[in-house]
UniProtKB/TrEMBL annotation:
Keywords: 4Fe-4S, DNA damage, DNA repair, Glycosidase, Hydrolase, Iron, Iron-sulfur, Metal-binding. The keyword Metal-binding applies. SUPFAM superfamilies: DNA-glycosylase, Nudix. Belongs to the Nth/MutY family. The keyword Lyase does not apply. NCBIfam families: mutY (TIGR01084). Binds 1 [4Fe-4S] cluster. Gene3D superfamilies: Helix-hairpin-Helix base-excision DNA repair enzymes (C-terminal), Hypothetical protein, domain 2, Nucleoside Triphosphate Pyrophosphohydrolase. GO terms for molecular function: purine-specific mismatch base pair DNA N-glycosylase activity. CDD domains: ENDO3c, NUDIX_DNA_Glycosylase_C-MutY. It comes from Salinimicrobium flavum. This is Adenine DNA glycosylase.
Length: 346
């Protein structure tokens, strides 16, 4: 109880003035939590404002097209979050008459809502005593209580969840949960934590045993996959180009990109034209094909690094239906494509 009391006291004195903290509206809290999944507050806040402006209610979000949502999400990455966001909004509107579930058990049933997000919404909006556990919480608890179980193991996730629930202030779960996350974000940071001015330094196992740099423990990540993308940027005499929508369950599902030829290694002009995918696009033999960037653009995702070359294909007519450059700029595209479009300046 002393831990939770000290934590909440620290939070009330040090919390940041964030837009979603001025409301108890579950729609806005849910929106902020989805945006902030795997996204820093500084990066996510402008997106929160954009979504609230475009979709002030869950009804507005539910009625929007997928392309509108993806375009607004562009640049945040992990686009499945955006698709799940809209799916959940449609469920809330169509099946729940626009009212969000008021408890953890039903919140976690929403598409894209996991244990952390359901706990956050349930505790902040409905005062349900369920603890949140995220990266910040893992770090704070592992250091203060000296827990060295890997945080990305099944055993570790269970242990930290149980610990957080035991510490939880059941009368004030909202401030406790937000305080624990905020303490990890501002005070007990991954590097250079403020140990000399910490309300828990006297009891912190990591501080007293000089183990700050070693906690929390995390199992090694899986091997990063390297991929080589070659985009064919068609440009016709009518100033039109080709963009195609990505299908399937891979990265960037639902976003648009130029015709893609993926190779096993970095491509040259000579071996590019020999690829089966290159032939699939029926590039006119009279076309002039020039490499735009000599050095591949490296785009890093969590488990794969994409090495990209853009090949400019000037031709009289496009081999398939195209769109104007103006229309191309309106479609949702991966940030990799967006940066190229900005640089190339059609």
């Amino acid at each position: 109880m002393l831990f939770s009391k000290n934590l909440i006291s620290w939070y009330l004195e040090n919390k940041r003035d964030l837009p979603w903290r001025s409301t108890g509206d579950p729609y806005r809290i849910w929106l902020s939590e989805i945006i902030l999944q795997q996204t820093r507050v500084a990066q996510g806040t402008p997106y929160y404002y954009k979504f609230i402006e475009a979709f002030p209610t869950v009804f507005d979000l539910a009625e929007a097209s997928e392309e509108e949502v993806l375009k607004l999400w562009q640049g945040l990455g992990y686009y499945s979050r955006a698709r799940n966001l809209q799916t959940a909004a449609q469920f809330v509107v169509e099946d729940l008459d626009g009212k969000f579930p008021d408890n953890y058990k039903d919140l976690i049933k929403l598409k894209g809502v996991g244990e952390y997000t359901a706990s956050a919404i349930a505790s902040i909006c409905f005062k349900e005593p369920v603890a949140v556990v995220d990266g910040n919480v893992y770090r704070v608890l592992s250091r203060i209580f000296g827990i060295d179980t890997p945080i990305n193991s099944t055993e570790g996730q269970k242990q930290f969840k149980e610990k957080a629930n035991r510490l939880l202030d059941r009368k004030n779960p909202a401030d406790f949960n937000q305080g624990l996350m905020e303490f990890g974000a501002l005070h007990c940071t991954p590097r250079r934590p403020l140990c000399d001015n910490c309300p828990f330094s006297s009891e912190c196992v990591a501080f007293n045993r000089i183990q700050i740099a070693y906690l929390p423990v995390k199992l090694k990540k899986q091997k990063v996959r390297k991929r080589h993308f070659n985009y064919l940027v068609f440009i016709s005499e009518e100033n039109k180009t080709i963009l195609q929508q990505r299908k399937g369950k891979g990265i960037w599902q639902g976003l648009y990109e130029f015709p893609l030829v993926e190779t096993y290694s970095e491509a040259t002009a000579e071996n590019l034209v020999q690829e089966e995918a290159y032939g699939y696009y029926s590039v006119p033999s009279s076309s002039k094909v020039d490499l735009f960037n000599i050095e591949p653009v490296v785009h890093k995702l969590s488990h794969q690094h994409i090495f990209t070359k853009f090949w400019i294909v000037n031709c009289e007519e496009l081999p398939q239906q195209g769109i104007s450059f103006t229309e191309a700029g309106k479609l949702p595209v991966p940030v990799l494509i967006e940066k190229f479009i900005d640089t190339f300046d059609f």
